[in-house]
Every structure is written in structure tokens, then in C-alpha cells.
């Protein structure tokens, strides 16, 4: 949002990961999401689909540079679903979605 934040306030980043393919993204696909937070965050909490991820096993974070990355194999994303209108034949794709949320103090 365009709101102005000050030091010692919490900020939340929400990553919406979509899969438009007909196969799910599995842990064995080793999907990684990375970003560098500026300003640097402290007191991170990280969830994937509302399930907490732990530092070291679920994600890594360098508090001196702001570099964040999920650990390979943590993120899965369901396959898309496809429906076809029986009258028009139009196919509609609904992507599979996973939500990664990172909160911390600036």
C-alpha cells in the first residue's frame, strides 16, 4: 500500500504463487522464492499457506543484507483446474495458488 511506515513498525509481504499448468509443483521440484528486503527486516515470521516455516529449515535470511530465500523443497503449488463451457466450448483456467507471507519489523 502507499502508506508511509516508520522505524519499529511491522510490515507484511504477501507472495501469491500461481500455477497455470496441469501438474502440481511438488517439493521435489525444488521451487525457491527469494527477495532482498530494503529496508532490512527484523523479527521475521514466515508462513506458507498459513503454516509456519522455521528459519534454517524453511527459509534463510541474512539480517545484514536483507536477503531472503525459501529452502528448496518447501514450496508446493497445486495444479490449475480447467472447466469447459458445454455450450460455447470456452475453456476457463483457474490457477492453483500457494501464499507465502513474510512479516517483520523495519
What does this structure look like?
The protein has 106 residues and is mainly β. Helices cover 0% and strands 46% of the residues. The chain has no helices and 9 strands. It has a 4-stranded antiparallel beta sheet with strand order 1-9-3-4, with no helix packed on it. A hairpin with a 6-residue loop joins strand 7 and strand 8. It starts with 9 loop residues before the first strand and ends with a strand.
Notable characteristics:
106 residues; mainly beta; four-stranded antiparallel sheet; elongated
Mean pLDDT: 95
Oligomer: single chain
Biggest beta sheet attributes: 4 strands, antiparallel
The total of helices stands at 0
Order of helices and strands: EEEEEEEEE
Helix share of residues?
under 10%
> What topology, given as strand order, has the largest sheet?
1-9-3-4
Radius of gyration: 17 Å
Amino- and carboxy-terminal Cα gap: 15 Å
Uncertain regions spanning at least 5 consecutive residues: none
Number of strands: 9
State the shape: elongated
Strand content bin: over 45%
Task: Please state the structural category.
Answer: mainly beta
Summarize the structure.
This protein is about 0% helix and about 45% strand.
SSE blueprint and pairings:
Layout: E1 10-19, E2 34-36, E3 42-48, E4 51-53, E5 59-62, E6 67-70, E7 81-84, E8 91-94, E9 96-105
Antiparallel strand pairs: 1-9, 2-6, 3-4, 3-9, 5-6, 7-8
